[in-house]
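Posting here for the record, re: magnesium ion.
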Amino acid sequence: MTKFSEIKGFAFDLDGVITDTAKFHTQAWHALADQVNVTWTPELQESLKGIDRMGSLEMILKAGNKQDDYTHDEKVALASWKNNHYVELISGLTPDDILPGMADFIKELNDKGYRASVASASKNAPFILDKLGLTDSFVGIVDPATLHAGKPDPEIFVRAAEILNLLPEQVIGLEDSAAGIASINGAGEVSLGIGDTTVLAAANLNFASTAEVTLANIAAKLD
Ligand code: BG6
Ligand code: MG
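Prediction output follows.
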C-alpha cells in the first residue's frame, strides 16, 4: 500500500465524518418512510448513508415495494419534502457541531501544507461548511450535481483528487459509509473508514471514532 510519506492530500466525506448530520438525514428519511408507509429498519438506515437524495428515496420506496406507486413528479415532491425537513434540522448548526477531533485534524492538515477537498453527495454541503466555519479550510468541494453517478461509483473521489491537483494514490479519502469506502477504493485512493468495522470492512484503515483521526495515528496504521 501507499506509504504515509507519499500522501499529500485528503478528500473528506461530510455527513458523519466532519459533522453529525447523518443523524438528521436519518430523522428526515424516517419521517418520509412513515409518510409513505414503508417500515424503517436499521439495515435500511445504514444502506442510505452516502447515497444521493433521489437514490435514497428510490431505496426507501423499493424496501416497501412501492417504487412503481409514484410518478416522477410525485417522487421529486417527496424528495423535496424530505429536504425541507432536513434543512430545518440543520439550520442551527454552529462550529460546536464539528465532530470530536475533526476541527483539530483539519487545522493540522492546513498548518502542515496538506491539501483537503470535500467529496459529499450532499447538495447542502456548501451551506453546512459555512455554518461550521470551515469553508476556507478546503481547496474545493465536488459539486454533486455535475456527477454522472454517485457513490459507490468512484467518480466523486476521482474528482476530489483532481480538485487537489494530486494523483489518487497521493490522497486519503475519509468516509463513514460502505458506499463511500467502495467509491474511494474504486478511485485508487487510500480509504479511511470511521465507525463500525463490520460495515466498513473494505476500508484500508479503520478508526472507531473521529476523535482518533490524527496524522500521527494515520502514519502509524499506514507504515
Ligand atoms: C450524503 C448523506 O452525504 O448526502 C446521505 O450520507 C444524503 O444520507 C446525501 O442523502 C444527499 O444529501 P442532500 O443534502 O443533497 O439531500
Ligand atoms: Mg457520510
